[in-house]
């Protein structure tokens, strides 16, 4: 029941805000989200020979960043049909298909990809270990998962500013622009809960990944976790 409720909530929220998603992402992060994606791709070391699946792909910003970095074969997967529609329009040059799917059950053959990326989407999974085991199945040997995700900064000054912005400013602006009351209250709530309960490197190791690296970006506002099969 909890699984069904979370899937329905996430799908409804992202279907609802899809038309304003890009603008709000760039506006609310002051454009820093573009740097985060570029840095994550660079840290992973993708090349023109990489075969990438972007999970929780949204409208395609991570896929577009990977393409600009030289990756040629890219696929997208997302739970939201509206997001995938925008992904297909923005990234019609992609040599690969976009599919409507949850991360826990991916409709791809074993060892199909060299790389998987997830930007700000892991906290929306209903079963993170199951999703990571699914990632491992479809990755080739030595393949990598790159997760870009928010976190709560450890520095008290930065943390207090971050919490004020996330809990007060972001929901107000998000509701004003997107006309969705739930979407931009769900974001700070999900980030706070995720940071308290989820240790990404530990889960990756529990799911059989052999090497896990973690990087902190922009005063600890975001983390990049790279796990190798």
Detailed description of the structure:
- It contains nine helices and seven strands.
- The chain is of the alpha/beta class and 229 residues long.
- It has one domain: Vaccinia Virus protein VP39 (Rossmann fold, 3-Layer(aba) Sandwich).
- Strands 3-2-1-4-5-7-6 form a seven-stranded mixed sheet, with helices on both faces.
- The longest helix has 23 residues.
Write the layout of secondary structure elements.
Layout: H1 2-17, H2 21-28, H3 32-44, E1 51-55, H4 61-68, E2 73-78, H5 81-90, E3 98-100, E4 113-119, H6 128-138, E5 139-150, H7 156-178, H8 183-197, H9 200-206, E6 211-217, E7 222-228
Parallel strand pairs: 1-2, 1-4, 2-3, 4-5
Antiparallel strand pairs: 5-7, 6-7
| CATH architecture assignment name | 3-Layer(aba) Sandwich
Biggest sheet, spatial arrangement of strands: 3-2-1-4-5-7-6
| Major β-sheet annotation | 7 strands, mixed
**SSE order, one letter for each helix or strand:** HHHEHEHEEHEHHHEE
Average residue pLDDT = 88
CA distance, first residue to last residue: 32 Å
Q: Give the CATH class.
A: Alpha Beta
Structural class: alpha/beta
The gyration radius over C-alpha positions equals 17 Å
CATH topology category name: Rossmann fold
Query: What overall geometry do the principal axes of the alpha carbons give?
Result: globular
CATH homologous superfamily - what is it?
Vaccinia Virus protein VP39
Share of helix, binned = 40-55%
The unreliable regions are none
Beta-strand portion reads: 15-25%
Q: How many DSSP E strands?
A: 7
Number of domains: 1
Task: Report a brief summary of the structure.
The protein is globular.
């Amino acid at each position: 029941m909890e699984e069904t409720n979370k899937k329905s909530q996430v799908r409804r929220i992202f279907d609802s805000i899809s038309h304003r998603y890009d603008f709000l992402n760039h506006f609310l992060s002051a454009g820093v989200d573009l740097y985060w994606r570029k840095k994550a791709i660079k840290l992973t070391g993708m090349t023109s020979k990489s075969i990438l699946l972007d999970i929780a792909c949204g409208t395609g910003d991570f896929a577009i960043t990977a393409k600009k970095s030289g990756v040629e074969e890219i696929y997208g997967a997302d739970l939201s049909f509206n997001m995938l529609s925008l992904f297909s329009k923005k990234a019609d040059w992609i040599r690969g298909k976009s599919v409507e799917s949850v991360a826990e059950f991916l409709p791809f053959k074993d060892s199909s990809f060299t790389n998987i990326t997830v930007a700000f989407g892991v906290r929306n999974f209903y079963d993170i270990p199951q999703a990571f085991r699914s990632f491992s199945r479809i990755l080739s040997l030595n393949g990598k998962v790159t997760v870009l995700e928010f976190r709560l900064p450890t520095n008290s000054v930065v943390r207090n500013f971050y919490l004020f912005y996330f809990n007060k400013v972001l929901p107000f602006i998000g509701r004003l622009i997107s006309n969705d009351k739930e979407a931009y209250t769900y974001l700070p709530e999900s980030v706070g809960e995720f940071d308290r309960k989820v240790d990404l490197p530990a889960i990756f190791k529990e799911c059989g990944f052999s090497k896990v690296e973690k990087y902190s970006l922009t005063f600890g506002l975001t983390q990049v976790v790279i796990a190798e099969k």
